[in-house]
Structures are given as structure tokens and as C-alpha cells.
Design goal:
single chain, alpha+beta, four-stranded antiparallel beta sheet, globular
Length: 163
């Protein structure tokens, strides 16, 4: 009950974001049971992502300093969006009765960022366990920063990247 009151104290924007995360986590959980991974990846990465294009990007040299400030602001906004998406996906996964492992979390986070025009990359890595068994992990990156699934990702060797 305590975790439910935390959600109630959140604003409507955060509740909608958490609801979107819940829907996408459940959707990708089922998709991973039914469809091959390559079809899921192809479906969510095809077509143009939503982009925030600035027409003034082709402005003269005198406006380049202002453009650099806009780019820095856009990076800050992307970071804020990524933090909010991270919170929503991790909070829903943590409090859900269904165990949402790394792959549906990565797919949900990627989809949420893509819808908001924030570029990101899904990374699939493999490693050997101490018992010499092959283990896999996925995580979501934005530039050189890990957005989701960062715990333990350093021990995995990336073998595939999408996005």
C-alpha cells in the first residue's frame, strides 16, 4: 500500500508516463514470447523517429553562438526526458507482480525515448558466468551514457546494437 501512495502523490504527467511504461513493458513481454527478436527490433526501429528540427540551424555565422546554446539546452532536455523515462520504467518494473527482465525494459525505454525524439541505442551483450554458461543482457544507451540496464553491463561484451 505504501508504494501506491507514492504514485498517488505524483503529478498527472508522471502517472501517465508510468502508465505508458506499464503498457509497453507488458506489450513487449508478450511480444518476446510470441515473435522473434529481429521482427520486434525491425518494427520499433523502422521509419523516421520524431525529430525536433530547428529551421534556424542553417542560419549565418553570427547566429552560430545562439545555436550552440540551443544545442546545449536540447541536450539538457534530452537528459531530463531520459531520467523521467528511466524512473517510469524502473518504478513500474520494480513494483509489478510480473518480473520484467532487462529486454522488455530496454525495448520499452527505447520506444518511449523515440516517441519523444530522443535518440538512443539498444545494446545486446553476452558474457560467461562463473559456471562457464553463456549469459545475456540488454541495456539502453543515450550517447555514451547508460539510461536503463546499467547494472552489470560492464561485464558483458556488446555483440549487437540497434537504434
Amino acid at each position: 500500500m505504501r508504494s501506491l501512495t507514492k504514485y498517488v502523490r505524483r503529478g498527472p504527467a508522471e502517472l501517465l508516463l508510468a502508465a505508458e511504461a506499464l503498457f509497453l513493458l507488458a506489450f513487449f513481454h508478450v511480444c518476446l514470447l510470441v515473435f522473434p527478436v529481429y521482427r520486434i527490433i525491425r518494427a520499433i526501429t523502422r521509419g523516421p523517429a520524431v525529430e525536433h528540427h530547428d529551421e534556424e540551424a542553417e542560419a549565418g555565422e553570427s547566429e552560430m553562438r545562439a545555436m550552440n546554446d540551443v544545442e546545449r539546452t536540447a541536450e539538457t532536455q534530452s537528459d531530463e526526458v531520459a531520467l523521467r523515462v528511466r524512473w517510469a520504467v524502473e518504478a513500474v518494473a520494480r513494483h509489478s507482480p510480473i518480473a520484467f527482465v532487462c529486454f522488455p525494459q530496454t525495448l520499452a525505454g527505447y520506444t518511449m525515448l523515440r516517441r519523444r525524439g530522443v535518440p538512443s541505442t539498444m545494446v545486446y551483450g553476452v558474457a560467461r558466468s562463473p559456471a562457464n554458461k553463456l549469459t545475456a543482457h540488454t541495456w539502453l544507451m543515450m550517447g555514451d551514457r547508460v539510461v536503463l540496464g546499467g547494472e552489470g553491463s560492464a561485464q558483458f561484451k556488446p555483440v549487437e546494437r540497434w537504434g
